[in-house]
Hints:
Elements: H1 3-7, E1 16-18, E2 25-27, H2 28-59, H3 68-101, H4 110-132, H5 150-180, H6 189-219, H7 228-262, H8 269-283, H9 299-334, H10 343-346, H11 353-376, H12 379-385, H13 390-417, H14 426-452, H15 475-508, H16 526-530, H17 542-570
Antiparallel strand pairs: 1-2
Helix pairs in contact: 2-3, 2-4, 2-15, 3-4, 3-5, 3-6, 3-7, 4-5, 5-6, 6-7, 6-8, 7-9, 7-11, 7-13, 8-9, 9-11, 9-17, 11-13, 11-14, 11-17, 12-17, 13-14, 13-15, 14-15
Amino acid sequence: MTAETVIGAVSAKGDFRTCQYTGLKVDAAAQKLIIANAVAAVVFLAIGGLMGLLVALTRWPAVHLLPADWFYLILTGHGANVLLFWIIFFEIAILYFASAVLLNSRLAAPKLGWLGFVLMIVGAIATNVAVLQGDSSVMFTSYPPMMAKPHFYLGIILFAVGALIGCGLFFATLVIAKEEGTYEGSIPLVTFGALTAAIIAVFTIASGAIILIPTWLWSLGLISDIDPLMYKVIWWAMGHSSQQINVSAHVSLWYLTAALLVGAKPLSEKVSRVAFFMYILFLQLASAHHLLAEPGMDASWKIVNTSYMMYLAVMGSMVHGLTVPGAIEAAQRRNGFNRGMFEWLRKAPWGHPAFAGMFLSLVFFGFIGGISGVVLGTEQLNVLMHNTIYVPGHFHGTVVAGTTLAFMGATYLVLPLIFQREIVWPKLAKIQPYLFGIGAAGISLFMMGAGTLGVARRHWDMTFSDASLGFAHSAGAFLMMGLNGIFAIIAAIGGIIFVLVVVGTALFGKKITSGHKLTFPLFAGGGAVASHYGSEKAPKLPGTIILVTIFFVCFVLYYFINWKYLSELWLFR
């Protein structure tokens, strides 16, 4: 049975070029689709990022920029553009790169890829139009009985169908590459991680269809009612799982960036693959922490999800948190940086924006997003933070400081390798990941601090000044929200620089020709490392062991500090 029989009409042949820096064969059809999805991603990042800055300046009590109706409108648009459109457009680009490019294969059915892209564009525009019309300020979760315009839901549905087509092309390309023998042995680890993301994406999209299609019909008046509790349960099967697509995708980019910039091989292919597989098995099941305060949910289900399932899901990320820096240390020591515990880290390519974005993403995702996620996912501790601004603080640590920063870093690889353009304004590019990373980390930390002090999420006015009963926050809460606004400005500056560099490079960057020396060079042989199965041999990792120990100490300290706060709620003396 041929690939054509399995997946239908496919591209009969590829039009390839060989990348002079990585040695990889790049299919022209895949290249065009990668560029299109990456450009669309950056456009929606710019829109969503601007909206996020307006939200932060409104939540800053001293500024309080927007009126209430505009605040909720902009908050809805911010969530849709950065949590859905920016990230998933970029993830589709990752799927095409990880399949066609890393496997030296032609892309299956490029015309279907363009159909998926058009559906995603139309869907994203339709949802944004619905939001900007002012009648769909239902925020990202869009909980009933709040109702948006029909094209709000239809836009998300069309976008999801387009993304599903992209996932299908990824699977089909894997079949073609296997049949045509474009690679040897097992697929490389980066492709395996992308496969994990695609599998989770199918589950996520199916969950979204189960609940959003009826909700769309409800908005049209064809269904009389949507049960709010059932909506929440099914929606979070989509909402939380979408974050796991992000985790699988950005962890894959960690491995890719480490390979291309320092020649890092996985410490153990088998261990890293098991960690990815744990995402598939357990991460969707660990979403109960969003529903712990809901009535009608079985207690045993809550307990299982917030204990065993969460522990196993977190273990997968902890494995990657060891193996990625460990692989970098092993490679750097192999490259001659053997003095002391940390010469390998000091002499890493910190001036390369791709490496800076990758490593900062790794650190912030672990120390900020990861630790806070475990706290939120613990049933008892969830009492402290449920529906406070701690919750968006947590997912800004995962999605912004983690995923978005990793995607930004990878873009600096995509520009020369796929766009075939030299990066413009390299000095700005060097500082961009640091500005954005520091800003995003500050946003996350100060949101969580304010949430611990009781500041509500999603509320236009933290003082509730128009309420019948007055409410007074501590001075610390006001300080936290002010600092959140300041760091939002820093992150916005970093985001603006990123958009300017990407757009400037795409439009005005020097066309790369044969023999061109890159401003931000790659490791010789890094392409072969990224595109082949293989593990590091007998590595010594004293520096990584120390870093991981520091992480665990921080983890334990923060975890039990929150139990101390919880004990104060219990009023035990």
